[in-house]
Prior knowledge:
Layout: H1 8-20, H2 23-33, E1 57-59, E2 62-64, H3 66-77, H4 87-110, H5 117-130, H6 135-144, H7 149-169, H8 178-190, E3 195-205, H9 211-226, H10 231-238, E4 249-253, H11 260-267, E5 274-280, E6 283-294, E7 304-312, H12 320-335, H13 343-349, E8 353-361, H14 370-374, E9 385-387, E10 391-401, H15 411-437, E11 440-442
Antiparallel strand pairs: 1-2, 1-11, 3-4, 3-6, 5-6, 7-8, 7-10, 9-10
Helix pairs in contact: 1-15, 3-4, 4-7, 5-7, 8-15
Keywords: Chaperone, Isomerase, Periplasm, Rotamase, Signal
GO molecular function: peptidyl-prolyl cis-trans isomerase activity
Domain PpiC: 194-291
Amino acid sequence: MIEYRFSKFLAGLAAMSLATAPVALQAQSAVASNPLDIPDNVSLLKQSDPNVRTATAVVNGSVITRTDIEQRLALLLSSANLPPEQMQAARMRIFRNLIDETLQIQAAEAQEMPVTDQEVQSQYAEIARRNGQDAAGMDQALRAMGSSPASLKRQLRAEIAWQRLLSRNVAPFVNVSAEEVKEVLARMEADRGKEEYRLGEIFLAATPASSAAVQENARQIVEQLRRGADFSVYARQFSEATTAANGGDLGFVRLETLPAEMASVAREMQPGQLVGPFEIPGGFEILYLIDKRQIGMANPRNAILSLKQISISFPPNSTDAQASARVEQFAAAIQGMRGCGDAERVAAEIDAEVVTNNGMRVAQLPEPLQPAILELQVGQATPPFGSIEEGVRVLLLCGRDDPQAEGGPTFDRVMSQIEDDRIAKRAQSYLRDLRNDAYIEYN
């Protein structure tokens, strides 16, 4: 799988703003006010067939072709298995991204900050290295999937150009006072022990006329996510929230900062759980709970475990009765075991296998197992889990190093977060100005 390289700088910019200004509120305001007074039952004077129209454009003289779109779509399809009915929406999202990239590259060149081919090639080679390849191998892999090296290099060039534009035209003019930082630190200290939720979201805007179609589209997205599709990839391509650029990640937020509909759903979720689509003002929401923590407190999911996995397998063509008898024997043997030192003896008696791991974090375990592990005392085992095909096993807790309480954010870290928040908001305005000033001819 080809790895997208999204700038750490740009990803970090959104973190604070996502926590304080959820996009659902923005969508609610926009739909509720309807400042242009456009009726819901719009009748177009000229109909267009999206399956026939060629989505190309000339942006200030630079051409975006259908090939550009299809090659970028191939990159997406390497990470996400899109159903046919979502292909057109993905193409249009990619089309808009390509227009923005073109504007970013042009703006950097106009301000005499062009990105050199050598800089792009260096970033490209680094991505190849992280994927266990050299540049030539990356070239071949991209062509094999229907994309091209030029498509990925274009994206990298735009990212570098945008970083330079923000560094010159936005970041130097963002100021944060010491008093502001102290106020934030005081609020965080007052909130110590309260829960924060790290949420991922996919928001799809809808009007009363389009509600049914949008809900069905959201349902199909959830179906793909439940089959194992990458949430962040789908969020980038389909979410209409500002969090889309960050893979839908809102960062850690307090539930009271969210719209009531989102807060009530998130409150009942466990880490790793996906919920949706559900209706909120302005559209439909899909939520994924990435993590949950208490402010300023140690996160128990960061505990380091010493585990022994004891597992049994089943002969081919085992009947249900035979498998049930084997599982009952296994469960009885585990129940009679006297701690971790007895594991090998018991395993030998029932023809089981023992595997030891002394450095696993709770958060690295499958989500359904984490609550059970956290409730165990040393020497206790989880209930048996698994299947006839994959084998049945238990995890035996032999030791746990609990994490230390977090020392809390530093003055410099909080100042940096506030600065990043303000840069992110101004960056959105900056890109909007580039779009407004552009001459774009659609074909």
